[in-house]
Amino acid sequence: MVQDHTGFAISTTSNLGRGCRSRCREQARLTELCEVPLELLRESGTEYDDYAYHWIDALQSYWLERSGLLDKLKTAIQASHPDVVRFAGADLLDKILYPPINLFHRFLRKDQEGFNQALTEALELHKAYWTATEEREVSVEGHLALVPLAIACLAYDAGFPIAIESDYIPG
């Protein structure tokens, strides 16, 4: 079974965002989510592009402080190239699925200026994607940029100044 990747991306990384925003209350829950083995996700019967598993692996490694984080993120970036991806459409990949990976990369590099530029771009791409069709415009999924918000919460918690105002992330 092949699925639309929007829900997959939102569910895996928005849980990270909720954990970041309420770290004290939800740390144990987020740790449990990060301990779900990738093999279990791969065996679910639903096919996703390989980059998604590498992306989840990188997020799990970050949260659980496992080794190899940068290599895992690099693999996720390489596997998310449009020439490699088999299931996600180009528009979805470019505007919704890849920007959080770029944000996370900027966060890990402690590149505050680059992070804010990437966040601005991610929100612009989010808007472009979710307003491209009438069907998308009325979809609740597009009202907030949950995945960029999750990564912005990580950055904010780490002391990054978030200099972005948008209707797609709470201020």
Characterization of this structure:
- Helices cover 66% and strands 0% of the residues.
- The termini are far apart.
- Helix 1 (5-21) packs across helix 2 and helix 1 (5-21) packs parallel to helix 10 (146-157).
- It has helices at 5-21, 23-34, 38-42, 50-64, 69-79, 90-97, 99-108, 112-130, 134-137, 146-157.
- Mean pLDDT is 87; it is low at 1-24.
- It has one domain (5-157): Orthogonal Bundle (Hyaluronidase domain-like).
- It contains 10 helices and no strands.
- The chain has 171 residues and is mainly alpha-helical.
- This is Immunity 49 family protein.
- It comes from Streptomyces cavernicola.
Write the layout of secondary structure elements.
Elements: H1 5-21, H2 23-34, H3 38-42, H4 50-64, H5 69-79, H6 90-97, H7 99-108, H8 112-130, H9 134-137, H10 146-157
Specify Rg, calculated over alpha carbons: 15 Å
Q: Uncertain spans, ≥5 residues at pLDDT below 50?
A: 1-24
H/E element string?
HHHHHHHHHH
What's the CATH topology name?
Hyaluronidase domain-like
Main sheet: strands, sense, barrel: none
Which outline best applies?
globular
Structure annotation, total helices: 10
Number of domains: 1
- Helix % is 55-70%
Task: Please give the CATH class.
Answer: Mainly Alpha
Overall average pLDDT: 87
Number of strands: 0
CATH architecture: Orthogonal Bundle
Strand content: under 5%
N-end to C-end Cα span: 38 Å
Protein name: Immunity 49 family protein
InterPro entries: Imm49
Organism: Streptomyces cavernicola
